[in-house]
Design a protein that fits this description.
The chain folds into four domains: about 120 residues, no CATH class; about 80 residues, no CATH class; about 140 residues, Pseudouridine synthase (2-Layer Sandwich); about 35 residues, no CATH class. The chain has 14 helices and 16 strands. A hairpin with a 2-residue loop joins strand 15 and strand 16. The longest helix is centred in the middle third of the chain and has 23 residues. The two termini are about 60 Å apart.
């Protein structure tokens, strides 16, 4: 395990995917802002590597600055400890040593005074000591200088909240809790690719029988009531309803691929995983089952794609209640998994410090590189179906030439 000292080294590691666990009642914007402020605070508390300004005294540039002669980078705390006194580069000192001294037409006056004082009194007086101290101070001033351009009061904080970029993969409403996958800085494009790949999202929905609300959630106004006692010992009723719902959604997913179910193409497509349509217009359910049945309370586990505002899930619970000859409303929504990111591996809002986030990014990078969730698997189309479709559309013997025309014809058949 390496130890990070400077904030610039930590900044280079803040590019990746993080998985956070959002509590219910908290908007995603508040969660992202909390992560942002926490990272900025920890970065500004670390040691800062600064570079003082350019050296003065060059006649080549119009401003009198020589950009080829710069100070060595040093830590800000060390500069403050040395009272902002910086040493000149070795290159600058070597140039000054080999620089020829200008020839003086006449000797300075203090040389004459010094020699006369020695000849008269045969000893060094106080004026001679003072002149030597001045010469030593001038030599020291040539080797170091005071520079306040790197002082923290002048530079201000090294990082601001505007320096970070965030891009969420999934969206959770304030009423829901669970996994939120977010891309940071240079990994925002990876987050967009994962979102476009339509990952499977697993929800655990808590519901209650006997009443219906105006919003479908427990915070809405009650609009209808019905008895539920006839469902006490009849769990098979809800299992049968859920099986019918899952079968209808799977049929819709296969219909969008335009592949015959009893063909070799369908077998190879199913072997790769759940069929995901390229043109997603509504939420599709791939798995739905009841994991807890304690009337009037029950819990469903749903795997779906395309859900954004949870409106579909709330309406689904109301529909299930009507099919069971009663009413039902949702009491809680929890996102348990988003693609390859699970709730067990997510960070809590209280764990969003710099060290935990950097370690978490390193773990998620290994998972993303191995499983590659951003690769979007395209659903292929049978060549026999395309040939028959072209023959059917072009009755005069001509065929559809461009793939765009073929796709448009297939979409018309799917939706008609």
């Amino acid at each position: 395990m390496c130890r990070l000292v400077y904030s610039a080294e930590a900044w280079r590691l803040l590019h990746g995917i993080v998985s956070l666990y959002k509590p219910a009642g908290m908007p995603m914007s508040v969660l992202i802002k909390g992560l942002n402020y926490s990272l900025v605070r920890d970065l500004n508390m670390m040691e800062r590597l600064v570079e003082p300004q350019y050296l003065l005294g060059s006649s080549s540039s119009p401003a009198g600055l020589d950009i080829s002669r710069r100070y060595f980078p040093s830590s800000q705390s060390q500069l403050i400890q040395n009272k902002m006194v910086v040493n000149l580069p070795i290159k600058e000192l070597s140039e000054s040593k080999h620089k020829p001294e200008p020839e003086l037409e006449t000797e300075p006056e203090y040389y004459e005074e010094k020699f006369t004082s020695i000849d008269r009194n045969n000893q060094l007086d106080e004026d001679c000591f003072a002149s030597e101290d001045k010469e030593l101070e001038e030599k020291e001033e040539k080797k170091e200088m005071v520079d306040y351009s790197s002082h923290f009061r002048l530079l201000g904080p090294a990082y601001n909240v505007e320096d970070f970029k965030f891009k969420p993969v999934n969206f959770l409403q304030p009423i829901a809790s669970g996994v939120c996958v977010i891309g940071i800085n240079n990994s925002t494009h990876t987050a967009v690719n994962i979102r476009n790949a339509n990952p499977l999202v697993t929800y655990e929905i808590q519901a209650e029988l006997g009443s219906a609300t105006s919003t479908g959630f427990t915070d809405g106004k009650t609009v209808a009531k019905a008895t539920w006692t006839h469902l006490k010992n009849r769990r098979w009723t809800i299992d049968q309803i859920l099986s019918n719902i899952q079968a209808s959604h799977q049929k819709s997913a296969w219909a969008s691929t335009n592949v015959l179910i009893d063909s070799q193409e369908a077998y190879e497509l199913a072997a790769k995983g759940p069929v995901r349509p390229n043109l997603l217009t509504d939420t599709l359910i791939y798995s739905i089952r009841c994991i807890e049945w304690k009337p009037p309370h029950f819990c469903l586990s749903i795997q779906c794609i395309g859900d954004r505002d949870h409106k579909f899930l709330l309406d689904l619970i109301s529909e299930i209640g009507i099919r069971m000859k009663t009413h039902a409303h949702t009491t809680g929504i929890r996102c348990a998994q988003v693609g390859i990111f699970t709730a067990e591996d997510s960070l809590l809002p209280s764990q969003c410090d710099l060290a935990s986030v950097i370690n978490h990014i390193g773990q998620t990078k290994k998972i993303v590189r191995s499983k590659k969730p951003f690769i979007r698997r395209s659903n292929f189309i049978s060549f026999n179906d395309v040939y028959s479709l072209n023959k059917h559309e072009a009755g005069d013997g001509s065929q559809v030439k461009s793939p765009k025309d073929r796709l448009q014809v297939l979409i018309k058949d799917i939706y008609n």
